């Protein structure tokens, strides 16, 4: 099959949506299928040429016309019929507008993957945009979703939140396809050495790992407070790895100092390659105590590496984690985070290993990207033109 993904941009440094799209492309190719991307990148952007999937980059419009992607609309009208299926990734952007102008009623089978962008948390965080988004939903996002063969969700909790939160949620064909990541590289001494070079102070101490963007929604403040209560002045360490705005990172470091745990908390910045995998394979648990998290690819990566996870009940896959016995679920309150960390520290090593084994089984059955790709492709499998 030949699948087109319509996505705002293909810059892998943006993470999030495009990271998932590219991993889906890897999974498509492993099954003998093709992925193409339609984006609003400039054709000369370096990541366009480097992308593993062919990119049709329509260029960014001038400021006066930036919200009307005329070239993308024209291209889609001409080429939409060349594909067995089209996936629109993300909402509330000009690429979504292009899809809305062409796909509903066109007869071309398409699906929309909101990637968590229908979560009401964002409306609560930015109340001044609430009215604007409701109007956009009425005239653009809603009709696009309603005309789709399927609206794809990463988890049941995400699907339920969307259906409950948006007026006019009628006629939507909802489908939970999950989300995930690819198979990690095998564990090696080189990975542990690479991580050790980034965080030498950890040495042989047990540590909990946070591995994501350092952003207010990630709940790092409550993780620090919970860690101080459960593990302060002990042998356990906390590694906060990821990129973040300098001022916000500085405020978190100040908080760690006030809590008396500065010597136990380590800030290596963004970890990639061998150092990233060394951090995951070497941790006692990976923690993601977000206030909102549509999926959390690092959760799937930790499960794939047989590491227990600690997630908040605002991470969309917390039901899957608790159901599989792959980790601990907490509320977004410091005492609840502390209780989860205390439970982790109290586990005998053999029990932590068993929890990690459960996580690996969950990865293989649900989070492996090949499984997700198969569920996405199945949306278009009954297209008569595919036969």
Write structural notes for this entry.
The chain has 387 residues and is α/β, with parallel strands linked by helices. It has helices spanning 16-30, 46-50, 70-79, 94-102, 120-125, 130-146, 156-165, 189-198, 220-231, 246-258, 273-282, 297-304, 318-324, 334-346, 349-367, 369-380; strands at 2-6, 34-39, 55-57, 85-89, 110-113, 150-153, 174-176, 207-211, 237-241, 265-269, 285-288, 309-312, 327-330. The strands form two sheets. The protein has a seven-stranded parallel sheet with strand order 3-2-1-4-5-6-7, with helices on both faces. It is globular, with a radius of gyration of 21 Å. The chain starts with a strand and ends in a 7-residue tail after the last helix.
Name its key features.
6-stranded parallel β-sheet; alpha/beta; 13 strands; 7-stranded parallel β-sheet
Query: Structural class given helices, strands, pairing?
Result: alpha/beta
Q: What can be said about the biggest beta sheet?
A: 7 strands, parallel
Q: Which percent range describes the beta-strand content?
A: 5-15%
| pLDDT averaged residue by residue | 91
Helix content: 40-55%
| Spatial extent as radius of gyration | 21 Å
List the helices and strands and how they pair.
Blueprint lengths: L1 E5 L9 H15 L3 E6 L6 H5 L4 E3 L12 H10 L5 E5 L4 H9 L7 E4 L6 H6 L4 H17 L3 E4 L2 H10 L8 E3 L12 H10 L8 E5 L8 H12 L5 E5 L4 H13 L6 E5 L3 H10 L2 E4 L8 H8 L4 E4 L5 H7 L2 E4 L3 H13 L2 H19 L1 H12 L7
Parallel strand pairs: 1-2, 1-4, 2-3, 4-5, 5-6, 6-7, 8-9, 8-11, 9-10, 11-12, 12-13
């Amino acid at each position: 099959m030949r699948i087109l993904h319509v996505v705002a941009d293909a810059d892998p440094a943006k993470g999030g949506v495009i990271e998932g799209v590219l991993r889906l492309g890897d999974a498509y190719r492993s099954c003998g299928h093709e992925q193409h991307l339609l984006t609003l990148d400039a054709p000369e952007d370096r990541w366009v040429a480097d992308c593993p999937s062919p990119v049709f980059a329509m260029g960014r419009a001038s400021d006066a016309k930036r919200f009307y992607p005329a070239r993308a609309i024209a291209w889609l009208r001409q080429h939409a019929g060349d594909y067995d299926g089209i996936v629109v990734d993300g909402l509330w952007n000009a690429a979504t507008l292009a899809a809305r102008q062409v796909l509903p009623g066109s007869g071309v089978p398409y699906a929309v993957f909101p990637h968590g962008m229908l979560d009401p948390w964002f409306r609560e965080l930015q109340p001044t945009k609430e009215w604007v988004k409701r109007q956009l939903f009425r005239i653009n996002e809603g009709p696009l979703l309603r005309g789709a063969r399927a609206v794809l969700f990463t988890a049941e909790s995400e699907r339920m939140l969307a259906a409950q939160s948006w007026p006019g949620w009628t006629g939507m064909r909802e489908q939970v396809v999950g989300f995930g990541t690819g198979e990690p590289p095998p564990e090696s001494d080189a990975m542990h050495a690479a991580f050790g070079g980034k965080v030498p102070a950890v040495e042989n101490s047990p540590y909990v790992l946070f591995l994501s963007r350092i952003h207010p929604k990630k709940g790092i403040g409550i993780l620090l407070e919970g860690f101080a209560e459960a593990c302060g002045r002990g042998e356990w360490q906390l590694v906060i790895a990821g990129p973040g705005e300098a001022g916000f990172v500085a405020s978190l470091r100040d908080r760690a100092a006030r809590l008396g745990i500065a010597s136990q908390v380590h800030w290596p910045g963004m970890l990639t390659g061998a150092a990233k995998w060394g951090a995951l394979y070497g941790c006692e648990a990976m923690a993601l105590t977000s206030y909102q998290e549509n999926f959390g690819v690092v959760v799937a990566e930790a499960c794939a590496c047989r590491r227990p996870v600690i997630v908040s009940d605002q991470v969309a896959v917390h039901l899957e984690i608790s159901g599989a016995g792959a980790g601990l679920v907490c509320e977004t309150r410091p005492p609840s985070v502390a209780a989860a960390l205390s439970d982790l520290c109290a586990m005998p090593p053999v029990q932590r290993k068993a929890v990690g084994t459960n996580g690996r089984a969950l990865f293989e059955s649900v989070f492996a990207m090949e499984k997700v790709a198969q569920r996405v492709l199945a949306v278009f499998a009954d297209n008569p033109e595919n036969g």
